[in-house]
Amino acid sequence: MKFNIKYITFSALLCASMVSCDLDVVPPSDISTETFWKNEKDAWNGLNALYAELPGMDIWDEMYTDNAHSHKPWEGPYELVQTNGITAGNDFGYGYSTVRIANNFIINVDKCDISEGLKERMKAEARFFRAWQYLQLTTKFGKAYLFTDVPEYNAPYAKRDPAEKVQAFILSELNEIAEILPDEYDGSYLYESSRITRAAALALRARAALYFGNYTEAEASAGKVISEGHHSLFRVTSLNAAQQQEADEMEKYIDFAEVGIDKDKFVKGLFSYETLWHKENANPGNPEYILTREYMADDNNCDWTRYTYIRPSQMGSGYSSFEPMQDLVDAYWSIDGKTLPEIPSEETRRARFADMWMKYFAEPVGETYKSVAPAVFREKVPTLDIKSIPYMQEFRNRDSRLYASILFPLKGWQETDFSGDFYYMWDPLKAGSDGNESWTGYNYRKLVSLTPYQGWQSVEDYPIIRYAEVLLTYAEARVQNNGWDEKVQHALNDLRDRCGMPNVPNSLSKDAALELVRNERRIELAAEGHRYDDIRRYGLEYCREAMNGESTAPCGGFDPVKKEWQKYVVIDKVWGDRLLLMPIPTSAMDVNPLLKDDQNPGY
Question: Which of 163, 368, 424, 536 could form a disulfide with 407, with the two C-beta atoms 3.0–4.6 Å apart?
């Protein structure tokens, strides 16, 4: 359903304000609620306004957590959240425009001359978007104003409804519309292939129930998506030349024979995971895509986040605006899929990195050092014995998803538009100074578009909900309900099989099972925007453990006076219990004075 943005923008404004127009189509004086809601084209345009509200890549919430970071304050208040410095002057998405657009559509579509069956289905789609927005509101702010009409702009001020009432509404709505929506569409006009399906409603309901701690309903809804069989995990069956080159290089990182891992399965698992976001696979036809945000080769409907903004500048162009942190890198499993690697202390890691850098990549200049040129670096890396370098040991024999998700020092990435072989260079002498390179020691590889649109943007569709999340939701909810059993193992082993990793253990206590599932969720869904919601629902003890203390880079610059390599602190995280909920923004309280006495605790 590649909508023309002209119609989307027009419809969104009309549905939200009731007084808009598209100058290419109709004179402004002819647009009104009385003249618009007449036929199936009006219904199509009106509903498309809601599809325009779909988010794309949601790395933003991830940068509030121990997973990711942005060293550019103009990108958002990410460090303020990580250090408990936010105020009511920050707005974290407190708004009801999507709800209003949905309500307006539901009320007015009955005026259109279309079949009753089509009206019911379209209303169900609109109700999905309304439920989606209420889920965003209640997970961030707790209570929310619940309404299903279209209030006048001079309507009386309204109080927020209790979170429990909002949660019940979301679950009830998604349960009802799942019985109305079809399993799939045939791709024709009004039945475009990426419209909201029954599986999307059930998957969102499973997510919501998990967030609310309603594990019975979470398991039930996720279980229906699984058992009904309309979705599966994406898998590749062969490798292209660039992938095969990297597969051969993986011998430096995985001791396949010694650890009993099938190389072919492992490398195909790596690329099965990585390429599900790549252009040739990024579309509603991907069996893993349950809800898709579509993009076009169009200046008004492309994705500006997944090429230049996420890449390092050393690839030719890049801003490194979003960067993974050491905390996330440390969370990826060892090759056995059940234990974490031995994590060196900050001092040991820094010393190992400095030794490697001075030996291979730095040249003395008077009392200090300078790094070799990137071209020299790229020539040297393939000649090195990675297995013999102490610093590189923490990247050896790890989960395949680490290699598919993270660019770490010296690692090659050949399936890109970079001219020649690419090896990732993290220069400690630029830590905290080069704004277009990472300050954490790492860049993302997962989600990154391989080729640009218009030189710096991308056009790949994005899976807002994918089947992997449903499997994880089912596993976590079932552990909460029944403990570790064969059904939990089967769901998780599907994920492990896809990425070429060993099966999960056959026997675990409930506490150990929850710990495993939570970490599996963290690395499988890394950079997809789930982490902040997850750590808060895990409880205060988890939040205080994860969100306090320093996150550091592998190494900092060289101090010529002390003659030592410095520690570089990316962020000194500070958790405050008030962060369980975001503040109602001052802008909202200015509009509705009743909110001033209903501010969330701690703000």
Answer: 424
Domain that holds residue 120: 43-58+74-234+579-597
Residue 187 within a domain: yes
- Strand runs labelled E in 438-488: 443-444, 462-466
3-state secondary structure labels for all residues of 318-329: CCCCCEECHHHH
Burial (CB < 10 A; 0-12, 13-18, 19+), residue 216, is exposed
Which whole-number Å values give the CA distances from 307 to 89, 157, 205, 439, in the listed order? 31, 43, 32, 18
Of all residues in the chain, the percent with pLDDT exceeding 90 is 93
Question: Cβ neighbours of residue 314 under 8 Å, at least 6 residues apart?
Answer: 374, 424, 425, 437
The CATH number linked to 204 is 1.25.40.390
Q: Which two tokens stand for residue 99?
A: 């709800």
Q: What ranges in 92-197 are assigned the alpha helix state H?
A: 97-108, 116-141, 163-178
Name the amino acid, one letter, at 513. Answer: A
Work out the end-to-end distance of the chain between its first and last CA atoms, rounded to an integer number of angstroms: 42
Distances (CA, A) of 23 to 6, 40, 117, 300: 10, 21, 32, 16
Closest of 416, 446, 452, 193 to residue 302, by C-alpha: 452
296 in a domain, yes or no? no
- pLDDT tens, 529-565? 999 999 999 999 999 999 999 999 999 999 999 999 9
Is residue 400 included in any domain, yes or no? no
What is the rounded radius of gyration, in angstroms, for the C-alpha atoms of the chain?
Answer: 25
pLDDT over 60 (residue 1) = no
Q: CB 563: neighbour CB atoms within 10 A?
A: 9
Question: Whole-model pTM?
Answer: 0.94
pLDDT digits (tens, 9 = 90+) for 57-74: 999 999 999 999 999 999
Is 133 domain-assigned? yes
Number of domains in the chain: 1
Judged by DSSP in three states, 400 sits in helix
| Local structure of 406: helix, strand or coil | strand
